[in-house]
Amino acid sequence: MTDHNSWLTRSEVVACGKPVYVTGGSGWRPERPKGWILLPRYRCAELGAHVELGEQPIAYLHVRNAIPPHSYAPLYVRSSDQIDIGRLTRAELVDVERELL
């Protein structure tokens, strides 16, 4: 069962079948969804592109220092029309450039 922030356990992530990024490990499995900006809920909010009620994540991010068993954070799709690209972090920009250019 997901926690109140929609984080999942390992078995839930496996069962959902969505792509997962494993930090400090193998990276994306199977592969990163192409052509999208992927952000966790808090970054969507910070950038003014809030996650809507009922909006489904497209992928999950394994967070190594999360409190078990819910250590997989949902990632949501945002387009360059929805956010100010200038407010992305350097790491987020690298991902965006890799996917959109």
What this model shows, in words?
The protein has 101 residues and is of the alpha+beta class. The chain is 24% helix and 21% strand. The protein has a 5-stranded mixed sheet with strand order 2-1-4-5-3. The termini are far apart.
By secondary-structure content and strand pairing, the structural class works out as: alpha+beta
Shape: globular
**How would a textbook summarize the main sheet?**
5 strands, mixed
Percentage of helical residues? 10-25%
Low-confidence runs of at least 5 consecutive residues: none
Keywords:
single chain; 101 residues; alpha+beta; five-stranded mixed β-sheet; 24% helix; 21% strand
Secondary structure elements and their pairing?
Layout: H1 10-16, E1 20-22, E2 27-29, E3 37-40, H2 41-46, E4 59-62, E5 72-78, H3 90-100
Parallel strand pairs: 1-4
Antiparallel strand pairs: 1-2, 3-5, 4-5
Short description:
The chain has helices spanning 10-16, 41-46, 90-100, and strands at 20-22, 27-29, 37-40, 59-62, 72-78. It has 101 residues and is of the alpha+beta class.
